[in-house]
Amino acid sequence: VQLQASGGGLVQAGASLRLSCAAPGSTLGTYSMAWFRQALGKEREFVAAIKWSGSTTVYADSVKGRFTISRVSAENAVYLQMNSLKPEDTAVYYCAAGRPVHSAMRSPAMYYYWGQGTLVTVSS
In 10 A of CB 120, how many CB atoms? Predict the structure, then answer.
């Protein structure tokens, strides 16, 4: 499964962006999907995840209430709607696919496939 993340860019604080993750030639329907991010000089951190069925979503505390993860089966895509962006949201964002149990949805080790990353820069 090859994942393609897109939608990053340079925005001002308070703005919104929507990231997309697609998998041309593969189906994402049986995978739980997640977004992680890595800021310069920092470790990769969990942002949000959605179960393969779409019935469960999990968020990092730092983005809860501002970010929304969703999936559209008909489009074979997963999205991350980011609102009220802050400078500390600046990072490369990666989408990932895997089959983690619910308690492990935040763990990057549970995801098999990763996209190439898309850069989000939020200026103050």
Answer: 22
**Inter-CA distances, 27 with 87, 91, 97, Å:** 34, 27, 11
Find the distance separating the first CA and the last CA of the chain, reported in whole Å.
37
CA dihedral (31, 54, 58, 40) positive or negative: positive
Which residue, among 60, 79, 61, has the nearest Cα to 69 in the 3D structure? Answer: 79
Task: Give the span between the Cα atoms of 60 and 64, in whole angstroms.
Answer: 6
What's the CA dihedral at 59, 52, 25, 80 to 10 degrees? -20
Provide the residue-wise pLDDT of the chain in tens; the chain has 124 residues: 899 999 999 999 999 999 999 998 888 989 999 999 999 999 999 999 999 888 899 999 999 999 999 999 888 999 999 999 999 999 999 999 999 998 999 999 999 999 999 999 999 9
